[in-house]
Amino acid sequence: MSLMLRNIHPTSRAHSATLIFLHGSGDTGSNLVQWIRFLLGRDMDFGHIKVIYPTAPLQPYTPLSGEQSNVWFDRRAISIDVLENRKSISQIYDKINDIINNEAELGITSNRIVVGGFSMGGALALHTGFHLNKNLAGIFACSSFLNRDSIVYESLSQTLETGSDLPELRMYHGVKDTLVPLDWGKETFDNLTRLGVKGKFIPLDNTLHELKKREIVDIHDWILKKLPALPEELPNKL
Asked: Is 209 a catalytic residue?
């Protein structure tokens, strides 16, 4: 499976932190950039933070009767009750780790990286931060859920025994979402917090399965708190 990357680089100086923003099923990184630009009226810029918008590989997707789609992994159905397709999900892990490792080679440590996403991208972000790499600065998920038998829960059960710190979580969910009901997102959040994850669940009134401007603004502000500019990057004050 091939994975294309769309990198948005800081315009003024070398970056000291990274945001990886994962799109939903059937979308692309470029389309996510355009969606955010439409909502904000500008790009999601931070100055010292590089933003990476990967595009999922094109592969058969069972909920579309096996048609080819840009999806991070296959699943049997869009339902919290079905068994997680762990074989398919595991095939994307190396690609996500490659992005994180590439940032490490550029001098960006895991605790200076936030991973988040919309819908399926949010689910992959949860796998990334609470199964693959538990040293990240933070995870956010928008309109997302985990299957009830998710390997993420098994992984966190083991971490709970060691008392290790975990990335902070921020989840957003539309109250009127009919594709991924609010209850699925809240159940996922509650399960994660019982397993040691700390964070916040934010219901969005009058919101379907979509991103909203207020949601992106809140994510932007939260990321700046998680990944502040380093002292040497701050303007000199007389």
From this structure: yes
